[in-house]
């Protein structure tokens, strides 16, 4: 079901900042044929750095074609706690993950 948007609060604009465009990459170690799926990573912090299996692959939001199996995902941004997760991607699956980074308290 679709929800009607809330009216803007008094004295505010209805404009919502656009999300950064989703970038799609095919990793060098992705199989040309064989068992692979798609992993999409979003973050609550624009341009958070994405590291997959120890290799920097880009910034959020990012969509990647990856081999089937378990992958170690790291999402980091200066001033925020680094997030570490193991993500399982099955053959022909579309996996989406939203990383919520917490700010480091001074």
Describe this structure in words.
The chain is mainly β and 106 residues long. The chain has no helices and 8 strands. The strands form 2 sheets. Strands 1-5-2-8 form a 4-stranded mixed sheet, with no helix packed on it. The chain is elongated and about 45 Å long. It starts with 22 loop residues before the first strand and ends in a 7-residue tail after the last strand. The model is unreliable at 12-16 (pLDDT under 50).
Which structural category do the helix and sheet elements fall into?
A: mainly beta
Low-pLDDT runs of 5+ residues are: 12-16
As a percent range, the share of helical residues equals under 10%
- Return the average pLDDT rounded to an integer: 82
Write the layout of secondary structure elements.
Elements: E1 23-26, E2 36-43, E3 49-52, E4 55-59, E5 62-67, E6 69-76, E7 83-89, E8 94-99
Parallel strand pairs: 1-5, 2-8
Antiparallel strand pairs: 2-5, 3-4, 3-6, 6-7
């Amino acid at each position: 079901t679709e929800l009607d948007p809330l009216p803007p609060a008094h004295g505010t604009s209805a404009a919502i900042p656009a999300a950064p465009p989703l970038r799609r990459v095919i990793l060098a170690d992705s199989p040309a044929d064989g068992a692979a799926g798609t992993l999409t990573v979003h973050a609550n912090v624009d341009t958070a750095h994405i590291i997959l299996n120890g290799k920097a692959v880009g910034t959020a939001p990012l969509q990647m074609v990856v081999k089937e199996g378990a992958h170690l995902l790291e999402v980091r941004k200066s001033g925020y706690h680094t997030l570490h997760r193991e993500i399982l991607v099955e053959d022909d699956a579309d996996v989406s993950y939203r990383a919520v980074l917490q700010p480091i308290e001074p």
